[in-house]
């Protein structure tokens, strides 16, 4: 299992960063390779993404969610990543977003890409794109403030 950990400081309040992250259907705007995310309920997501030149689909369940603090998820089956994103208030107008993901690279192409750190660079790039997306907008596109207990 490969684990990726990346973080970024964003010049928006913690609630703005958190609220935007809960808008999963907006992920294709800032996540490279993500073609579509469908919210199937408060805790269920369906993902469609290009991974190493191949279209891959998987479902994920949100296993824990606390407003302005964290969102954790687990892939249902073996096709997608598990992870957690946490939000840390740096001051009234800035937030550190920390992302941790775990997945099993499939096939030689993904394993080689992972060995060369392509997956970590992609995650880092996605966080930079999230930062640009939310800082440019200045406000979230929506919010879901529900609590999901582990």
Output the structural class: alpha+beta
Number of domains: 1
- Strand share of the residues? 35-45%
Enumerate the strands of the largest sheet in spatial order, edge to edge or round the barrel.
Answer: 1-7-6-5-4-3-2
CATH topological fold name: Alpha-D-Glucose-1,6-Bisphosphate, Chain A, domain 4
Average pLDDT, to the nearest integer? Answer: 92
Cα-to-Cα separation, first versus last residue:
22 Å
Helix-strand topology string: EHEEEEEEHH
Number of helices: 3
What oligomeric state best describes the polypeptide chains here? Answer: single chain
CATH architecture type? 2-Layer Sandwich
Give the overall form: globular
Tally of strands:
7
* Low-pLDDT windows of residues: none
Largest sheet: 7 strands, antiparallel
User: What's the alpha carbon Rg, rounded to whole Å?
Assistant: 15 Å
Query: What is the CATH homologous superfamily assignment?
Result: START domain
Percent range for helical residues?
10-25%
> What is the CATH C level class, in words?
Alpha Beta
